[in-house]
Amino acid sequence: MQKILIMLLFAAATPSLALADEGMWTFDNFPAAVVKQTYGVDITPAWLDHVRLSTIRLSNCTASFVSPEGLVLTNHHCAESCLADLSSAEKSLDQLGFAAADRRGELPCRRQVADVLIAMENVTDRVAAAIGGLADEAANTARKKALTNLEASCEAASLKAKSGKLKCESVTLYEGGQYFLYKYKHYDDVRLVFAPEFDIAFFGGDPDNFTYPRFDLDLALFRVYEDDKPVKPHDYLAWSPTGPKDGDTVFVSGHPGSTNRMNTVSQLTRLRDVVFPYILDQWSRQRTALRDFARGSVEG
To answer: Consecutive sets of 10 residues in the chain, 300 residues long: mean pLDDT of each?
Structure first.
């Protein structure tokens, strides 16, 4: 399952330039002492908890609570499936955009969910005990069974806990060096509040989006509901109208895709010499086929 990470970006004292310093950590293993020594920033366990509880895992996206009334901020593409579901042949919300006039106008996103990581439990010792002394194939079977049982036991225990029902997922870290149970508060009532039209949300594509982020509107706003009422999170990230200044230390929290940081030189060489040339060749063939198709008549 996907792990939640906190990443470090250092806004260097150079106008319009942000440099990414080395740093990507799970919340349970944050090097607070090193960060304080290097940047003079005191990152406390309470601050890490606040950021983690403000961070939301959407369906294949990351977002964050930005108000005490359950308002959620994310990227525009994270709302595209919802916009498509809410559109019709006569009215495309992806092309026109959407803005709810009030709470009653917020529209349910049927396929969107929101998960908040409430707690993390290291279960490495229990997994190790389950596979100890077994051959590879048997150990793999025993590992899967142990993790499945741990997830089920975790969810059953949550029903009697103060937290209420949780969604428990096993997470493998460090190529199997550690195993954790991530315990999520799960919300399945997510409603669309605002999304601009696609043309302004993706103006200039990724190059302009990443280089000049203030010149497009790559955002969407949801609101999370529970029992038909807006969730009132204790932790949220307050909106800043000014953003970071030169010299600020900036952290980004979320559920990134694979970074391939553990790839060996041999793996990178294979990607360069075998995998990528094959993919490029396939895309070239597809492009040629589509161009030939486009030159044909409407009747085909």
So the answer is: 64 41 81 90 95 94 96 95 94 95 96 95 96 94 97 95 91 90 96 95 78 80 97 94 84 80 89 95 94 79
Alpha carbon distances (Å) from 148 to 105, 118, 153, 184, 221:
41, 19, 9, 16, 35
Phi–psi pair at 153, nearest 5 degrees: -65, -40
Backbone angles phi, psi at 124, to 5 degrees: -55, -45
Tokens 């970006």, located at residue: 9
* Residue/partner pairs of 216-219 with CB below 8 Å, 24 or more apart: 217/76, 218/75, 218/76, 218/77, 219/73, 219/74, 219/75, 219/76, 219/195
Are 162 and 216 contacting, i.e. CB atoms less than 8 angstroms apart? Answer: no
The pTM (predicted TM-score) of the whole model is 0.81
Q: What is the SS3 string spanning the chain?
A: CCCCEEEEEECCCCCCCCECCCCEEEHHHCCHHHHHHHHCCCCCHHHHHHHHHHEEEECCEEEEECCCCCEEEECHHHHHHHHHHCCCCCCCHHHHCEECCCHHHCEECCCCCEEEEEEEEECHHHHHHHHCCCCHHHHHHHHHHHHHHHHHHHHHHHCCCCCCCCEEEEEEEHHHCEEEEEEEEEECEEEEEEECCHHHHCCCHHHHHHHCHHHCCCCEEEEEEECCEECCCCCCCCCCCCCCCCCCEEEEEECCCCCCCCCCHHHHHHHHHHHHHHHHHHHHHHHHHHHHHHCCCCCC
Q: Is 236 exposed, middle or buried (0-12, 13-18, 19+ CB in 10 A)?
A: buried
